[in-house]
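Design a sequence for this backbone.
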């Protein structure tokens, strides 16, 4: 597409756009003054404006919020550190890559690995002086961090484990192809972080993105029914594999999903994606490119709170999108084929699939990999990586699958799991197995309340309520986020707790168990006692009155406890406040 057709880049003077647009425009393809900041030995930080640019390279400047007050009193600057996110389409890595990440976590980060809700690794606590070395370590093992954050297409996720079936393999392969096709082309990343020199006479070009990239982040997921483990409806763009007699014939396409909102700002809301149509496998990359192009050209570049693709779709309608896509693609999407989802969770423990192979899903509570007394998760996975001949497949439910184990190798993996206090998944309650929590404190600058550190403690208490109601194994999904941005996709959880202030959460109920309906606000600004007092009677009623196979989310709607969320834009308006 020629430059003048990029409406939002050029239809209005750059001065009238959001400050981030000006920053990108004048950044020399994302270079800014990052080099200057990295070289400054006086501070652990980089320059403020550059913190927006390093995001495009998967790097966030943070500080340890636990230490803020003490350091301020001691007249020290905040303990600046960096979060580094790996780009790993489809969430797959080889054992030697696992070992490299394990070593990097211990050498140049905080000693832990964090599995994210988008199927990749994050490192926390990387100091500025180690940042280049850390990124180079990731690149040395064949991956990178380019485009893992920032206003570009993010890490493309796909249903977990390409070794599970041919359709899973095709989904993983499509994630790679789309990810590679939509990667930014700037040479800034390699020059700044890998020390490469620009080739003589070569200037930067961003043929797909232009100088201002996208108005906001853009996320793509690929699902293989009946599993909606990727939460397809939470994505800007989704591909749902359509199989006939086990053969992939194409993808149903969804657009306009997203989670983030701001408390008490009704113009912002989570949105469940719309079904746009069907495309052939060979058209999927072009559909991704042109959908991204539509958002590039029509997304709101003045108001970042209204800049996600979900608002473009909400404002202009799915009919408009279909026509615009057809114009760019040169043909219309076919009518959607239709599909059926049965779950949004992971198969836990051993399961088989694909050429006589076995796979073990290890539950990693809230995605944090580190050793604890009696449960040496980090050391155990290191030992497994040394012995394992298959792959590691990360799931969007923050778990890891030890994938592609032959029947002969199973005893070795079992022994290693046992030796490290792992492999006890059957001991966990249904809620704990299915729970998700975002990172939140102490690293996330936007956190209003605890999440990763608090959810396990709260679940101990919720488990007691569930046991009283004979629901210990019920697979109710519970998700917690430290703020309304919704990084654990809470609005698609049957029970969601969204941070409002320290120790205070909004409680949402009534999302479907298969991830196609949002929850509704049930209790506002609730403390732990309020939450437990609200959930106890609901669990008792659900335990006593549920229909066969009825999920908790469906029950609370049938029982009239919360309304079914029919329209995303109603999200902030309807919903009962208080039990
Ligand atoms: Fe997120 C911002 C962590 C998945 C919606 N997210 C952040 C930041 C970078 C905070 C910041 O901007 O300073 C968090 C860093 C915390 C830390 O210390 O590590 C953060 N998000 C995460 C992760 C690590 C949560 C986790 O526990 O796994 C996930 C990393 C995914 C990845 O590998 O790429 C993560 N974030 C999500 C998801 C879930 C998803 O994509 O499936 C969402 C909701 C879906 C969506 O995008 O609509 C999500 N994160 C946000 C938002 C709200 C965006 C919006 O449209 O309003 C923000 C804030 C922003 O962008 O301004 C945000
Ligand atoms: Fe941070 Fe909020 Fe995302 Fe949690 S939901 S990681 S608190 S931005």
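Sequence:
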């Amino acid at each position: 597409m020629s430059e003048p057709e990029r409406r939002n880049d050029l239809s209005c003077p750059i001065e009238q756009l959001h400050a981030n647009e000006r920053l990108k425009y004048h950044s020399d393809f994302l270079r800014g003054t990052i080099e200057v900041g990295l070289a400054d030995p006086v501070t652990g930080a980089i320059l403020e404006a550059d913190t927006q640019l390093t995001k495009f390279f998967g790097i966030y400047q943070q500080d340890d919020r636990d230490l803020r007050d003490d350091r301020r009193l001691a007249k020290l600057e905040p303990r600046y550190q960096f979060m580094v996110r790996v780009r790993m389409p489809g969430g797959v890595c080889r054992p030697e890559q696992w070992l490299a990440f394990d070593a990097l976590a211990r050498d140049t980060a905080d000693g832990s690995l964090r599995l994210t809700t988008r199927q990749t690794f994050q490192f926390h606590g990387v100091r500025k002086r180690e940042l280049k070395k850390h990124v180079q370590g990731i690149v040395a093992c064949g991956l990178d961090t380019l485009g893992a954050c920032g206003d570009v297409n993010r890490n493309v996720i796909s249903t977990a484990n390409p070794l599970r079936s041919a359709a899973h393999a095709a989904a993983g392969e499509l994630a790679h192809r789309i990810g590679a096709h939509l990667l930014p082309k700037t040479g800034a990343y390699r020059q700044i972080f890998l020390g490469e020199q620009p080739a003589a006479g070569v200037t930067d070009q961003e043929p797909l993105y232009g100088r201002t990239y996208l108005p906001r982040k853009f996320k793509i997921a690929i699902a293989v029914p009946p599993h909606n483990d990727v939460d397809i409806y939470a994505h800007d763009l989704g591909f749902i594999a359509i199989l006939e007699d086990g053969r992939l014939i194409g993808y149903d396409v969804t657009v306009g999903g997203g989670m983030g909102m701001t408390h008490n700002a009704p113009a912002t809301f989570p949105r469940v994606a719309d079904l746009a149509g069907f495309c052939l496998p060979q058209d999927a990359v072009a559909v991704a490119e042109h959908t991204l192009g539509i958002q590039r050209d029509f997304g709101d570049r003045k108001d970042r709170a209204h800049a996600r693709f979900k608002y473009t779709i909400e404002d202009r309608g799915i009919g408009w999108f279909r026509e615009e896509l057809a114009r760019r693609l040169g043909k219309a999407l076919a009518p959607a084929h239709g599909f059926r989802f049965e779950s949004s969770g992971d198969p836990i423990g051993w399961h088989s699939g694909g050429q006589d192979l076995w796979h073990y899903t290890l539950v990693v509570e809230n995605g944090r990999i580190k050793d604890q007394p009696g449960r040496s998760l980090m050391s155990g996975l290191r030992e497994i990586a040394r012995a394992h001949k298959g792959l590691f497949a990360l799931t969007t439910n923050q778990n890891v699958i030890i994938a592609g184990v032959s029947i002969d190798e199973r005893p070795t993996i079992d022994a290693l799991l046992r030796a490290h206090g792992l492999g006890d998944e059957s001991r966990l309650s249904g809620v704990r197995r299915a729970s998700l929590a975002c990172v939140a404190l102490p690293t996330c600058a936007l956190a209003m309340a605890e999440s990763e550190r608090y959810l396990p403690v709260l679940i101990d208490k919720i488990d007691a309520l569930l046991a009283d109601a004979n629901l210990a194994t019920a697979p109710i999904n519970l998700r917690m986020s430290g703020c309304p941005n919704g990084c654990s996709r809470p609005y698609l959880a049957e029970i969601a707790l969204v941070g409002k202030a320290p120790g205070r959460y909004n409680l949402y109920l009534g999302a479907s168990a298969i991830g196609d309906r949002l929850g509704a606000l049930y209790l506002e600004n609730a403390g732990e006692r309020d939450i437990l007092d609200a959930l106890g009677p609901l669990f008792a009623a659900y335990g006593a009155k549920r229909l066969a196979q009825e999920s908790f989310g469906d029950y609370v709607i049938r029982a009239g406890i919360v309304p079914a969320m029919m329209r995303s834009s109603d999200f902030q308006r309807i919903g009962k406040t208080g039990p």
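Residues 528-545 form the longest helix (18 residues).
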